[in-house]
Design brief:
The protein has about 500 residues and is mostly helical. Helix 4 crosses helix 15, helix 6 packs across helix 14 and helix 12 runs antiparallel to helix 13. The mean pLDDT is about 85. The chain has a single domain, classed as Amino acid/polyamine transporter I (Up-down Bundle). It has 18 helices and 2 strands.
Length: about 500
């Protein structure tokens, strides 16, 4: 049963006062909303809109974005309750430790690392590609030997190194840079919406929901959705099933609001600010996404939309290359904030693990001047920089998606568990209609997991197997709870 030993909420909060593991409380509700928008609006809306519309959903991809938003919205309510009740770094990892036990918490923490480390690496490569496209429009060519797609992606590497240094300096300083870049990014998104309205042709919306067609080349193979393999139906593009398939793809565009919860310990008033940050950023991004999607599918017929850089290409198609250059510049700024916030999220999850001694405790000690876990930040930055520079990651959005959806599922299930275990806890925010809404959130997230390809599940299981090996080989016997229990047992033995 030691696998499911839990750490009380009081223990988690008390540990935040330990000088060597203390983070500075410097973030306001506005900081958290900006932080959330900064990480959400990025690779997904800039790169996936065209792919989803052209290949699986048509103009009805707007419904795909809405479905993904509903899934995230349900999970966001659960995150908001937990984050305001347990204002401690670590997000889903910390929540799970208090409700489902140490082993589940470790699995969730390992899962979050997959989401954030791989997500930051993928987005850094996307940033490199957009930078290359932007510079080429200005007549500046990046040498092929170090450009995007080469053996060593130098722009991606340099980006991660610079952002790692910035994150190491301090969370508030990072937020100031984030605020500027988010302002640029939101301006570009609004520019796409309002400038694009003049070029919308309503004929492009017909048919809004194209007839379903069998997915070409997708059989009961590793590329097939797991749900097809389990239940034997033939997947289709377009039609109603295409909308659901689109939701599982564009879900990547919403990843990030959960990262707000990793900064819970650094919020000035977590009970009020965290729910505002989590839910507020999600609402803002959903409105922007729906508007952008309607404009782009109105500007260009869905089967002619570019599968990459759809926003910039749409303006080229209507004879506005200058607008396309501006949008490419905005994408560079937008993806910068995504990489930075994912780096912060990954370091805060590892920080929480180190404070629980599930990884070496020395890694998590904060610097007295910056108030940040410098060693962990540098280690995370090194891993992401090298992965982004050396690994041909390709289109692994699905791998990031499955990690996030798994965390959503377990956090949603944990809400009613904590309600039952600790009805006495003060909750600044509560999920309405509990336990129905948390159960619904878990069911929707798990369904979207089933729509992901078999090969994604295989990779996910392999990553989880590595995490389990580390837990049983090191973490289980070094955890703070285990060491304290052993110490207490030794004291009892001496006394008797």
């Amino acid at each position: 049963m030691s696998l499911f030993r839990t750490k009380t909420i009081e223990q988690s909060i008390a540990e935040t006062d330990e000088a060597e593991y203390q983070l500075k409380k410097r973030l306001t509700a506005l900081d958290l909303v900006v932080f959330g928008v900064g990480v959400i609006v990025g690779a997904g809306i800039f790169t996936l809109t065209g792919r989803a519309a052209a290949t699986v959903a048509g103009p009805a991809v707007v419904f795909s974005f809405i479905l993904a938003a509903i899934c995230c919205g349900l999970a966001a309510l659960c995150y908001a309750e937990f984050a305001s009740t347990v204002p401690v770094s670590g997000s889903a990892y910390t929540f799970s430790y208090a409700t489902l036990g140490e082993f589940v918490a470790w699995i969730i923490g390992w899962d979050l690392l997959l989401e954030m480390l791989l997500g930051a690496s993928v987005v850094a490569q996307g940033w490199s590609a957009y930078l290359q496209a932007f510079l080429s429009r200005l007549g500046i060519m990046v040498p092929e030997s170090v450009a995007y797609g080469s053996r060593f992606d130098l722009p991606a590497f340099v980006l991660v190194v610079v952002l790692t240094i910035l994150v190491t300096v301090g969370i508030k300083e990072s937020m100031r840079v984030n605020l500027i870049l988010v302002a640029v990014k939101v301006f570009i998104v609004l520019f796409v919406i309002f400038a694009g309205l003049a070029y919308v042709n309503t004929d492009n919306y017909s048919p809004f929901l194209p007839d379903a067609v069998a997915s070409e080349g997708v059989k009961a193979t590793l590329e097939a959705p797991l749900i097809q393999v389990l239940f034997g139906f033939t997947p289709t593009n377009f039609g109603l099933m295409g909308v659901f398939a689109g939701a599982s793809l564009v879900f990547f565009a919403y990843i990030g609001f959960d990262v707000v919860a990793t900064t819970a310990e650094e919020a000035k008033n977590p009970g009020r600010d965290l729910p505002i940050g989590i839910i507020g950023s999600l609402i803002i991004c959903t409105i922007l996404y729906v508007a952008v999607t309607l404009v782009i599918t109105g500007m260009v017929k869905y089967d002619q939309i570019a599968k990459t850089a759809a926003l910039a290409t749409a303006f080229e198609d209507v004879g506005k290359p200058g607008y396309a250059t501006l949008i490419a510049a905005g994408a560079v700024a937008g993806l910068t904030t995504v990489v930075m916030t994912l780096l912060i999220g990954a370091t805060r999850v590892l920080f929480a693990m180190s404070r629980d001694w599930l990884i070496p405790a020395s890694l998590g000690r904060t610097h007295p001047k910056t108030g940040t876990p410098v060693r962990i930040t540098l280690a995370v930055g090194a891993v992401v920089a090298l992965t982004a520079a050396l690994t041909p990651i390709g289109n692994l959005e699905y791998m990031v998606n499955i990690g996030t959806l798994a965390a959503f599922t377990l956090v949603s299930l944990a809400v009613p568990v904590l309600r039952k275990k600790r009805p006495d806890l003060k909750r600044a925010f509560t999920v309405p209609f509990s336990p129905f809404l948390p159960w619904l959130a878990a069911a929707v997230a798990f369904y979207l997991m089933l729509t992901l390809p078999v090969e994604t599940w295989i990779r996910f299981i392999l990553w989880m197997a590595i995490g389990v090996a580390i837990y049983f080989g090191y973490s289980r016997h070094h955890s703070r709870l285990h060491v304290h229990a052993q110490t207490a047992a030794s004291e009892d033995a001496r006394q008797h």
